[in-house]
Amino acid sequence: MTARKDIQAITERIRHRSQRTREAYLDRIGRAAGQAANRAILSCGNLAHGFAVCSPSEKVALGGDTVPNLGIITSYNDMLSAHQPFETYPALIKEAARQAGGIAQVAGGVPAMCDGVTQGQPGMELSLFSRDVIAMAAAVGLSHNMFDAAVYLGVCDKIVPGLVIAALSFGHLPAVFIPAGPMTSGIPNDQKAKIRQLYAEGKVGRAELLEAESKSYHGPGTCTFYGTANSNQMLMEIMGLHTPGASFINPGTPLRDALTREAARRALAITALGNAYTPVGRMIDERSIVNGVVGLHATGGSTNHTIHLIAMAAAAGIKLTWQDISDLSEAVPLLARVYPNGLADVNHFNAAGGMGFLIRELLDAGLLHEDVQTVWGEGLRAYTVEARLAEDGSVMRQAAPAVSGDDKVLAPFAKAFQATGGLRVLEGNLGHAVIKTSAVKPERRIVEAPALVFDSQQALNDAFKAGRLDRDFIAVVRFQGPKANGMPELHKLTTVLGILQDRGRHVALVTDGRMSGASGKVPAAIHVTPEALDGGTIGKIRDGDLIRLDAEAGLLQVLVPPSELAARAAPDVDLGANEHGFGRELFAGFRQMVGRADHGASAFAA
């Protein structure tokens, strides 16, 4: 089945816009394929260093080019729940490779930081830039040119986008992404959010707050709400970079291990040494990128991906824009309600039918390109399944259920939760911004109120504690863009603004910073571009200026005469406090080189 005409038209627009850069990219990876791992002609010194710790039989095999060698790029660390399960993956992958007649080596590790740990802390100012560091670190691991394919072990916020950028930079190699899965369900997310609000109001203490948080984040795996980490997994599956049904299987289960072994075998099967060569740079094209955006809208996914998808596409020579994302939002209905867009978590989503049900509904409605390449070797229809454990311990698959197991969590196309997607691009005299509408009630999506201007989230929180915010207002939190301080997430504002909204106040947020996949019930116009440090109008707003945020019409305006705005001087703000400590001084070059948020906020393509 072909995609609908409107989806085709947007895809064709992207293809036409990207023609020159895409052709140049494909030419580069074509030439790289001719220089790819040819261990038989490596110098003896090169090769000896490359397989020094291998077994004698592996050395013999790697001495020629008849046995495929699989590079493992891992984001393992044992502090972070999402990445701790990867500790055992290399051994599973190596054994699966041996059984399949190949070899696997850990090519390198990449850093994996957790925005949940660094929220509101100085370290958060490294978070966005860690994506580009991850891409660079993975490139170092693959630069040895010892590998015929690579598998990428990553889950969370910046890790997967960074790994995708790296994989596409080595686009002549096949790439399979292997997830770790979500932790089992803890206390309900809405209960956790309620305790946070009570703590912010001083009605419960730190002990009660820590107990609730610990019952929510309680074991190995990703957080169970639908933030950037789980949006990543959705993207990898709908873009064909996972094996079918792999995204949301819990860690530490026999099925999870079976899927990992299967992914390793599949990566070896699609190298240039076999008959199913699938270089990832050719596999991922404009249709794959559009499929990813469609999935993001249909699930109400993370706002972070309005940045990451642009950077990921650019790594393959594809020019995706916010306008493309906005136009696709108008065409794609919301089919999933997972916290913060609803009360369910990703385990409930998976139990209701998960990715297999979602992909089938979108395919049948003509909203996805079915005729794409995937690591599975078939079109996207092969992903309309659920993975199960066979009696012999292997992976078996069955068709996704015909009916949702819970249509309050995962709806069929005919009963969509709303006619348009969960994300919206706003524009007006404040520039461009992004808003996550799927978690915001329709009656809250239009706010017109006076501005209260802050230069940090701490200043806003201090004002709340001092009792100065019990009114209708739009909080303007500026100098939070990538050039100013690395564009940290401002998620700690969600609780404070949520309390005021619950009191009946009309509130919203406008910022050149980020709010993440956890953007909640308060309307938040984020990623405002140009940012304040780049001369954006957001830097000229003053307390009392009337602002209109209209998520229905896609408008973001400050209601001040143009002549008055033009006459205002940009504020003189000292950002020196952001330049040192917690490694921030090491990222000064990134702040200087980084591009705009609507261009992917990348240091590679500013």
UniProtKB/TrEMBL annotation:
Record-annotated Dihydroxy-acid/6-phosphogluconate dehydratase C-terminal domain positions: 408-601
Cofactor needs: [4Fe-4S] cluster
Membrane-spanning intervals of the chain: none
Keyword line: 4Fe-4S, Carbohydrate metabolism, Gluconate utilization, Iron, Iron-sulfur, Lyase, Metal-binding
Sites where the protein binds [4Fe-4S] cluster: 156, 223
Reaction(s) catalysed by this chain's protein: 6-phospho-D-gluconate = 2-dehydro-3-deoxy-6-phospho-D-gluconate + H2O
Protein name in UniProt: Phosphogluconate dehydratase
